[in-house]
Each structure stands twice: as C-alpha cells, then as structure tokens.
C-alpha cells in the first residue's frame, strides 16, 4: 500500500519541513494493523518526493476482528486489504502526518500557509464508482485526475476493467488541505472502513472537512459513504454542515433585514428586470443562475420563451427544495420541465456540469462569500466555467447612508461578508476581466441614483473575447 507526495516548489526539499519528517531518515511507525514506513525516494532543490508505505499484517487483521466478537469467515483471511489504498491509509495519514495536517510548522509557518504544486500518486486505489467518481470527488477541489484502471484479468481482456486504479492527483494547494482531502475521500472511494463507525467519526469528518465539505457538490454522497450509510450519523453530520437557520423561508418567516431596507425601492424587481434585459440583448439561450436560492429569478427566466435551457445552482439543498416548490416542477408540462434543472453545487468548486453555457448570473451572491474565497470564485467562474457572458450584481455600500434606520458600518444583511463601494467593485471587476481574457466589462446602476452616493445596486456584465453564442 503506497502513497507518494511530490512537489516542485523550490527549494523542493522544504517538503521535509511541511511533513515534519527528515528527508535523510527512513522512519518506521507501529500501527495496530502493521507498520508505516516514511522515506524519500527523491530529494532535490527542484523536485522532492516523500513516500508513505504501509506493511499490513493479515494476521493482525484477523486478530482485530476476533476482538469484536462474531465468527471468523474466510474473507477475513483472504481479502484485498493488505494490498490496496483504503481506510488503513487514512489512519496512517492522521498518525504519521498529524502535525502536517494541523497546519502547524514551527519556524516555517509561512511555508505551511502557502499553496504549492503537489502531486499525489496512489497504487491500487479502490474506486467503487469508477474513474467518474474519482473525478467527481477531486476535480471540484481543483485537482487534475489521472486514473489507470487495472484489468480484471490480463489474460481475459474481454472481462473488462476492475474497480482498482493507479491514480495521480495534481493540484496547487496548502499541503494540510490536500492531506485532509485524502483522509476523507480515500475511504469514500472504497465505500468501506476497517473499523466500527460511531459518533466520533462524525467529529472526524467535520474536522477534516472544514472549509470544503459543506460546499462540495457531492457532499451528501461523501457524508453517507464516510459514515457507512448509518442514517442517524449521516443526519447528524448534515445538520452540523448545513444548519436550518442558513436557509430562511422568507415567505413563511417574514422579510430579511436586507428586504426591509430594499423593498420600498422595489430593488428585487429592478434587478431581475435589468438582468433579463442584458441576457436578451446578448441573445443568451442557455443560462445558469449561480446561487439561485429559492428560485425567484429562475421563475422569471422560465416564463421567457427566449431561454432554451435554464440551470439553477445552490449550495443549500433546502433552498433548492424551495425553488422546486416555487417553480412547481412536478406540475410543469414535459416541454417546460425539460428546459430547467436544479443542481446542488458551489460557486468556489469546479463543476463540469455547468461549463459551456451562454451566460452565468450571480444576483446579490458574491457579497456572501468570505473575502479570501474571491480568488477561488474567480478561478472557477471566469477561468474554468468561462461562460460567454457573466452578470454580477452586488450592493453599493455608499448608498447605505440613505437607509436612515441602518447603523453606520453595518451591512444590509447579517450574512454579508463585505459590501463594495463603486470604486472597489470597478477595480475588482476590471482586474477579473483582464486576468481572464474577458474583452469587455460594462457597469450599470440599478435603482434611483443619488447624486453623491450613486444607486443602491451596482452591476457588471463581462463579455468573453470569444463569445459562446
């Protein structure tokens, strides 16, 4: 069972500092099921590789099963566990590279906090779901996935491939984040664990999934498989990841603070009307609404025959349920139903399902992102998804002074992480266009303008230099 970690960050030998394992030493760690060996097959200034090899003792596996009681079967003596990358590897990662996974690096903290080029190679990784599942799990996290399947039997190629793969994962990330991804996703791919799964596994999942699992498009699958399909544990994890209060049914529970400020200005209708006008002016036929929430814009898009395909994407499954109810999807005629679909996904993880669309729309969404997530948002939307047209609307912070009942320094909504001035928004949007080859970005004001403070909402429309339509 072998995992190698390679970097070309220079000096590459700094990998030893990140892993807290000296490149000149061969280190051995005792585990309940065998031993873990750490060594460096390659050490240099330009490239460095560390290897974690597990030597699994089949006898110890049988003994550990005996300790749990129950009859021993032949599968406990003859199985693939000593030879494949499985939950044993996750346990070894936590024990051997625990300090690296915590992100602590005495004297080299700036290195630990830095994104560096990384390549992980795993030999004989079970992927019960095939190469497609490998891509679905790792590509949204920014990995390039290269997978080579083993044949069921080389002597009989007509039997096809097995579910075992040699896998290479390439990315640029903080090492601690990448190790956490592996820790969680290796047993998810295998769909099995060698030990009893209890409440403590929920805590491990939440700890190692912090910062990425909540918004992962395959979150529900990851959670269910990691917890071995125990419904009570899965519900516990989901409740912690997506608290009920994060999705508010405004039609039942009243208006949000933002709506209380904006409703007298009729801003929602003005925004949706402006977005529709721009989409039509660019002859967009296939449109994605990113952060669609409860589907208010989707309903307006569906009512316009000019749009052939409409997709709503949101990180909250509850919001998507509300959107489905608002759109009455179960009652739509077949032709109407074929025009629209709802997808669970995130703005900051790559999603191949929404590539190739004419236009993407983010209405009052970007300000809900943490500022340190804006780079990921840019790379995903403008660099990877790259629609021909991108429309973004966001509050103009300067206009908040017009809301007499708003405290100075406060935002319009408690979930807003920031609000831009007109200058800040223009600088950000212009930079995004230049960095991602969007040939033009046009700015518009939405709502009645104040001579000094501007309009309450600002909008940017980005055109790619080679429009998709």
Provide an overview of this structure:
The protein has 469 residues and is an alpha/beta fold. The chain has helices at residues 15-19, 58-67, 87-96, 98-102, 109-112, 130-138, 175-190, 199-208, 219-226, 231-241, 250-253, 257-262, 267-281, 296-302, 317-327, 334-339, 374-385, 422-435, and strands spanning 2-7, 27-31, 34-43, 48-56, 116-126, 144-151, 161-173, 286-290, 309-314, 340-344, 359-363, 389-395, 438-446, 457-464. The strands form two sheets. A seven-stranded antiparallel β-sheet has the order 2-3-4-1-5-7-6. A seven-stranded mixed β-sheet has the order 10-9-8-11-12-14-13, with helices on both faces. β2 (27-31) and β3 (34-43) form a beta hairpin. α3 runs antiparallel to α7 (175-190), α7 packs across α9 and α8 (199-208) packs parallel to α10 (231-241). The protein starts with a strand and ends in a 5-residue tail after the last strand. Residues 66-71 and 244-256 have low confidence and may be disordered.
